[in-house]
Design a protein that fits this description.
With 342 residues, the chain is an all-alpha fold. 70% of the residues lie in helices and 0% in strands. Residues 5-9 have low confidence and may be disordered.
């Protein structure tokens, strides 16, 4: 009996040791598996990051290429060119920079801006070689003026930002919102003050690139002013005499005649007036920036004549019907126009 108990105890101990050994073995295997999974997860994260960057670059580049084709196309009207230019600027990859420490740090952002600057200066240079900035007018249209319209479209939309960047800046106040217009202005400002430039600013200010950037901002003054004029007037209301004067103005390159387009403020709603104010303010801001770097910019002669002949006058009855708020907007528009035509 004692012998049987001893045998049973020995067997129990042996089985117990075997189970302990099996548990230890299983735990070691689990540890190895966990470590392998961790390594695999890290590898997956790295692979995902690489794939994300590759996809982001490809999609952004494809979008820019498609939009620039529209910009250069002689079959597209100016409205389509404006829309394409806006998306073009929003599609620079730096606009999609995510501020992720692992792969989208500040150095990466500067590299992406550099890529954008290199691309834009090459494309803008090709376009610039086909136009004569001093003879351009935002009122011209048609296939003959296709390259000019493309240049104006770029000038008018340089300030556009992708909503992804705007949301990022809203969530992270330490991140600075940067449009291509901001980048160009900062380069011009630093160059004017003799300050050190970083790599992408050097490119913007080198050779003919600096001239192109300044001409873009000059074109911006005129183009945005033209958008304001469109909101304030209606050329369909021009009488025969006004049309004849306009024709003479065009034939004599502004030496004779005048541009007199009837203003429509008395029948314009508040939203249209608000938009006109925004355009006028943006045009003036661009001109004031040029003045800050010692560059003079006068309004294009056709626009200057048109704005100079706008008479913002209301009868007492019209003022009463319109109300004080809208009247104040008319006064604000008049002040902005007076400043613009100086």
């Amino acid at each position: 009996m004692k012998y049987s108990l001893l045998v049973l105890a020995t067997l129990a101990f042996t089985v117990s040791c075997s189970k302990v050994h099996e548990v230890e073995k299983n735990m070691n295997e689990m540890k190895s598996t966990t470590e392998l999974m961790s390594t695999t997860t890290d590898d997956m994260k790295e692979t995902t990051t690489v794939m994300y960057q590759q996809i982001r670059s490809k999609e952004a580049e494809d979008t820019r290429n498609k939009k620039f084709i529209i910009l250069k196309s002689k079959d597209e009207d100016f409205g389509s060119k404006i829309a394409a230019a806006a998306v073009y600027f929003k599609s620079f990859e730096y606009q999609l920079w995510s501020d992720q420490v692992q792969f989208d740090d500040n150095k990466t952002r500067e590299d992406l801006i550099l890529d954008g600057v290199n691309e834009f200066t090459r494309r803008a240079s090709d376009l610039y070689s086909k136009i004569k900035p001093n003879k351009m007018s935002p009122v011209n249209s048609g296939k003959k003026h296709n390259d000019e319209m493309a240049f104006y479209a770029l000038a008018a939309t340089m300030h556009m930002n992708h909503h992804f960047q705007e949301e990022l800046v809203s969530a992270r106040p330490t991140v600075k919102l940067l449009s291509f217009y901001d980048i160009v202005k900062e380069a011009l400002r630093k160059d004017n003050q003799g300050m050190a430039l970083n790599e992408f600013e050097e490119i913007l200010m080198s050779g003919i690139n600096k001239e192109i950037m300044t001409e873009l901002i000059k074109a911006r003054v005129d183009m945005i002013a033209a958008l304001a004029l469109k909101n304030l007037t209606d050329k369909r209301e021009m009488n025969l005499g006004q049309k004849i004067k306009a024709a003479i103005f065009k034939i004599t390159a502004g030496k004779l005649g005048s541009i007199q387009i009837p203003e429509v403020l008395s029948t314009t709603n508040e939203s249209t007036k608000n938009q006109a104010i925004k355009y006028l303010e943006a045009s003036l801001k661009a001109r004031k920036f040029l003045a800050s770097i010692n560059l003079e910019k006068k309004l294009e002669k056709t626009l200057l004549s048109a704005f100079s002949h706008i008479q913002i006058v209301q009868s007492e009855q019209e003022q009463e019907e319109a109300g004080t708020e809208i009247k104040e907007k008319d006064i604000e528009i008049k002040k902005l126009i007076d400043e613009l035509i100086q």
